[in-house]
Design a protein that fits this description.
The protein has 127 residues and is an all-alpha fold. The protein is built from five helices and no strands.
Length: 127
């Protein structure tokens, strides 16, 4: 992989990292915001059981999305560590050692497996 391609992938990873950090900041703000601030009511408690259920479901969804973004951020950070630590090995499959196609890395810059190894991994998970 040449320096231009590595520079492009670094830029893509840094953009993804910034996007995820912004998203996580949004979730952090929404977790901290009280229900009183969001609906203008003087009470922070729901009066109806259905409202309480809806509020709990919305909080649960936000936690799920934040957790997914956190895992994605970990993968992006790991890719940046690989890129900065051993740039000559970046873009090589962690299982077979073959070079990962640039098109795959452009679409998924944190990819660590080539397509065939990823398919094998997914097939093993399905069984």
């Amino acid at each position: 992989m040449n320096k231009k391609q590595l520079s492009h992938l670094e830029k893509r990873l840094l953009e993804e990292r910034a996007r995820v950090m912004k998203e996580l900041g949004y979730y952090d703000e929404s977790f901290k915001a009280s229900e009183q601030a969001s609906d203008g009511d003087l009470s922070s408690y729901s009066f109806h059981m259905a409202d309480q259920g809806t509020d709990a479901m919305e909080r649960e969804k936000q936690f799920l999305f934040a957790s997914q973004e956190g895992r994605y951020l970990w993968h992006v950070n790991e890719a940046l560590r690989r890129l900065y630590g051993t740039p000559e090995k970046f873009g090589h499959c962690h299982q077979c050692g073959a070079e990962i196609n640039f098109e795959r890395l452009d679409a998924l810059p944190h990819a660590r497996l080539c397509i065939s190894c990823k398919e094998k991994e997914e097939d093993a998970k399905r069984r």
